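Hey, weird one. I pasted the Nucleoside diphosphate kinase sequence into the form twice and got a warning about non-standard characters only the second time. First submission, copied straight from the form history:
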Amino acid sequence: MERSFVMLKPGVVNRRIVGEIISRLEKKGLQLIGLKMMCVSQEIAASHYREHVDKPFYPELVGYITSGPVIAMAWQGDDCVAFIRKITGATRPQDAQPGTIRGDYCMHTNHNVIHASDSPESGEREVALYFREEELCVWTDALECWL
């Protein structure tokens, strides 16, 4: 089973659309194995976005995810990363198709509403950054045969 990390950023919490977005992922048949509301520290933000450290948008990126509470989630399923990326939509809101999370809820890249792992390797790294293994609840889905 592949794992992916998803973060609903402060704008989602402030707009009170957390449930709507989680529902979209659940309806796809993905398995939620970790969920917590948290304030992201500067240290975690720096580790999370380490590949962007030299880019001009880095300070704003870190500033946004540390500006308020986020919803950190770990999801599991076959081809989990690819499915979540499709549901999430293009990073640039103007390129995101209607019906995707970014296409429906996001206007500006600098206030993107959601982060989703971009590869299975990133998924494993990011899940481990935000969750200890004992915080994850791997369970048997009785409906798996229908998905």
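That's the output from the first submission. The warning seems to come from a hidden character in my clipboard, not from the data itself. The chain has a mean pLDDT of 94.
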